[in-house]
Each structure stands twice: as C-alpha cells, then as structure tokens.
Amino acid sequence: DRICVVDKINSTKKFSTYCSVLESKSTTVECVPGYSRMDCFRKMYKGQADFGVFQPEDLLAAASYDSGSVAVINNIRTFPKQLFETELAAVVRKSANITFLNQLRGQKFCHPGYGYNTFEWTPIMTRYFESRVVPQLCESELTLAENRLKASSKYFKMACKAGPWVADADLDIKLKEKYHNLCGLCDDPDTCSTMDKYWDRRGPLFCLTDGVGDIAWSRIDDIDMHFGEPLASPQHCTWLSRPWPAIVARKKHSQTIQKMVMSLNEAQSHTWQWALLHLIESFNQAIVPLDSIMSLEDYLHQAPGFMSANTMSHCEPPRTVRICVKSNAESAKCELMKEVAKALGIEPGLSCTLRSSTEECMKAVRYDSADVVITGPDVENRAHSVFGLEPLVVEYSHKASALYRSAAIVHASSAIKTVQDLQQKKACFTGYDTVGWNTAVNMLKNKDLLTKSCPFYNAVGEFFSEVCVPGVNVSSDFKMSCPDSSGAENSFRGEEGAFKCLVTGMGDVAFIDLDTVKQNTDGNNNETWAVNLRSTDFRSVCAGNNSNSDCYLSWATPGQVLVQSNMSSVRREELYLTFLNLENYFGKQMKQPSMFQMFGKFDDRSDVLFSDASDRLETLASLHREKDVKHNYEKMLASLRPCSASISSVIPLMTILPTFLSLLFAAR
C-alpha cells in the first residue's frame, strides 16, 4: 500500500524522517511524494497512490470531480469525543437584549478578523455569519470585497474587524479609511491590525466581555474555554461546522488500509508502524474509525452548513475571473485551481476557457471572451502593441536563476570579446520580437551600432552578416543562416533551437536565456548535437568591455498575467485582488504543506500555467520600486515600443509570410 505524503515546497520534514524508516523496514507500505495535498488526490485517482491524509476543504474540492473511486475510512481528531473539528456560533451580551436576528441591525459586532491563511479561519468561515444576517450589496462600481464591507458598515453601528481586509496594503488602508466604523471597536482603531487586542480566535470574546461589543462570532470550543462554564442557553446553536481531517483511500483498498491504520495505535517506537503513525497524525491526535466507509460528499454532509457554505454568491449573474488556457494540462490545472479556490471561499470565482494557442488567448482577452491570459515574456511586446494587453501582475523570484536572463552566448574560444565584435557575425535568435531579439536591438541601439531606426529589423539585418530568426524568411533584409525558418517543424525554434544554431556552427552568437546553456550541457541533453557539450565550452558577451560565463543583458519576469489595458479600474482591482488571494493560499509562503501549488509541478509537468521557479506575484510598479531594475526587460521595452507599435500590425507572432514581407520590403 502506498501513502501519499506532501514532500515538496514548504513541506514539513515528515517525509525524510519517517519514510526512510518505512524503506528500511520489512513492510509493504511505501511513501509516494506529492507536491500538494490535491496532487496526492490526483495520484490516487490515477492509481499512483492508495491513501493519504486530507483536510475537509481538500475533500470538498475533490468531490466536484470524484467518480466514486475513493472513500473516507477514518478521521483524525484532537478531541476524540468531539464530533467536528470546528463549530461556529454567535454569542450576545445579555444586557444587549438581542433575542431575534432582526435585532442585530445597529448593534456592535466583534469579529475574529482577517489574515490567518490557515484552516483555522478560511474566508468562508470568516464571513459566514455576516453573509447570513447582513443584506448583501452588489453595486457594479465596487469590488465584491468592498460590497461586503459596505454592507456590514451600513448594517452594524460599529465593529472590530482587525487585520488585512484585502491583500494589497495600500488598498487596505483606503478601505479602512472609507469604512472606519468597522474598526471602531478595536483596541487600536487607527491601526486595526493583526496586533490588535481583539484580533485572533478569542479576540471577539474579549471584545464582548470587555463590554465593547454586543455580539461576537467565535468557535464554540473557544467560547467554552473563555467562559469556563456552559452558557445560559441550554444548547449550543451551531451556525457552521467543519469536519475533522480524514484518511481517504482508494475504494478497492479501503477495508485493508482501514484495518492496518487502526492497528497502529499499539505501535512500538521506531518500527514501520510507528513511522506510518507519525506520517498520518500530528501531535496528540487520535485516529477514529468511521461506522462505515463513506463517500466524500456523505462525510462532508455530516457537518451542518459545510457543503453549502461556499455557495453564498450574492451577485447575479455571479462575477467570475475568466482565465484563458492554451493546453489540456493548463486547463486541468486551472479547473483544479477553480475548485480549491471555491472550497476556501476565494471571490470572485474562477472559470477556465481553452484556446488553441497563446495567440488565440490574447485575442480572447482583447475581444472580452476572457479576462486574463498567463504568458511567458517572449510575447509581452506583441501582446501590448497588437492586442492592447498589459501585465496585471507578474511572476517574480528573488533567485536570479528563476528569472529569464537574456545573454549573448558565444563559444569560450571565440574571438568575440565585446558587443562591437559582434558586427558582421552570424546571430541566432529564438524568434522575432522575443526577449532575446528585443534585448539585442536595445543593446545595439544604445551603443549606436544600428545604422537605421524604425523598423529595427532592417538595421539588424545590416549589422549581422547572417541571422537565424525562426518565423522569418526574408532574403532582401536578412541573410538567413538556418534553413526553412518558416517551417513549423524547424529544429532551430525556441531556446534550444537558438542554442543548437550556435553549437552546429550556423551562428557565432546566440541570444538566449543563460539557463538554456545549463539545460543542454553537462549531460542534461542526450540528443546527438548536445550529448558531449560542457557548460565551460560557452561564455557570455557582456554589455561592458569584460566577458565572463554568466553576465546577462536583460532580465525578464518568468510570467505575466495579461489583461486589457483599457479595462475599468474596478474590474482591474477585482482581478488583482483575486490573484493576490490565490497567491496567499496557494503560493510558496505557506509554512504548512499546501492544499494546492500555483508555482510548482502539476502532474509531474513543469511550468504549467505558472513558472515552477516563481515565488510570488508583483505589480510592475512595485517591482520597479525595488533597487535593481537597471536591466529589467519590461522597463526596457518602453524605449522600443514607439517603433514596435508602428510595425506590429504586419508582424505575426511566430510566422511572417515570406511573400507578404517581400512586398513590404520591396516597397521600402
């Protein structure tokens, strides 16, 4: 039997500590590493793993596409006699004389606050009470987040809702100034932060018993602990329950695994049973068998309110963020991201629309069939000049190796030492209007080495003796060094193709990402042309008069979330906050094993939808406020765009029709 254990980015040390014990002992149980808990679910569905431990939100997301092939066999409890992990209730002060829901209007509300990013308080749990008692607004000129805040601000006289209301600090400040009565009950209303006395799970109860508020939204176990005795009400009135974490297994192995798991309680130290027990449960938890093996939905339905809590959309039709995807793998990841976001209550919801290519997705965004498309940096200039798109946010990493670093790569033995030495040499490019192309143009332009201005491709054709530019086959301005550049099957396309162009002698310099050299040398590429290459056989030509192995001419962010440049400010803000929320829950900053990974492998594939190496999302404005943006590609493009805009309407993304361009150049 195979247990799936999260052992990738931001995981605990459980895998290395306990899976090694399983490997060293005589047992049929083995560990299967997962990138996230939802990755473990997918591995079970594919027959690559047999069981694992999951949070109820995982089950909720998985239930949307479950075919009945898995089942819940046990749950894992901190308190064995407590039916549910969390139960939420509203508590009122007796002196407030509140006995009916319609008496809540105009009262003072104590709220647990925001900024948890854990399963103690998901967005659904945080706003459940207000969504049930406060008449919700759906004003088109406000984001969903602000609609909720405005509705509560109008309904309650005052409140303490400490912590970040939205994921952007500047927008958070503006909203707190606008709806300041929602911070009015806080101990420090001007700051209204996670440092406040009334923030945290028990914060609302202190707010209540300090005589500050009239009603508090809290967990029942915290209520019991805070008051130390049962409340005057003879029975707790639970509004919302959250089930315990559960062990889920493939159905055909469920009874065997359940029997094995229940035998672990008597495990001796440092046996395989002891190791498996530690992989399943955390400190002071107990494995509790279910009366019968249950489907995911049946297990979740036991907890009052849990299954329906994430269906509280208050705008009709519901607002959605429409993501355009370019492959089946991207579509699968997007659909899964949609379900996990829904399970946590991230708003607006997501939808995924599949198109055949990046070009078609950019058209879809341009003509409002989609809201966003996530692309690499090579199409950014065309996206702007042809389709009127611009980055909403970009992917970023503090690790230089995660960025696209465009470099002029030559053989280590080459006589080329400076940029000037490139004149009348043969150049290899990944394509036209790509990062490498535009970086080379910018460098040559800044050094006054181009004899002409717009269009720059004329001058580039004169500066180099020959060029290999996949997608272009124009003999009048380019003497092509590689054959049949316009063919879709051309082996010189892309990063690897441009490097191959250099290696095979068709070029003297290749404008490629620095990492392309590493990926195709030192045994990393077993193709005939690359099998014997060493990274030390190549070096970079620097913009200055020095030369070393790893200097670069520009750096670009590995991915951009592109939107219409002319969209309304409200819609832009809504999309922006949605992606920040996705990053908060599914990014790399999560300390505990993640439910889902935005930036990481998906089904063992790299760079699906987002770059694996990215750390976070940033706006270009915030990125450019950082210190080292001297060679930033996105900033560099601004100086080239007046030219590219003048020719963009006749330069397709990857193919330039030779006959059409021959006429264009003949007319020059």
From TrEMBL:
A GO term for molecular function: metal ion binding
Query: In this entry, which stretches build a coiled coil?
Result: none
Q: Name one Pfam family in it.
A: Transferrin
Q: Name one GO biological process term.
A: iron ion transport
Q: Which residue windows are transmembrane per the record?
A: 645-667
| Keywords associated with the record | Disulfide bond, Iron, Membrane, Metal-binding, Repeat, Transmembrane, Transmembrane helix
Q: Where is the Transferrin-like domain?
A: 1-313, 321-638
Name of the protein in question: Transferrin-like domain-containing protein
Which species is this record about? Timema tahoe
Source lineage: Eukaryota, Metazoa, Ecdysozoa, Arthropoda, Hexapoda
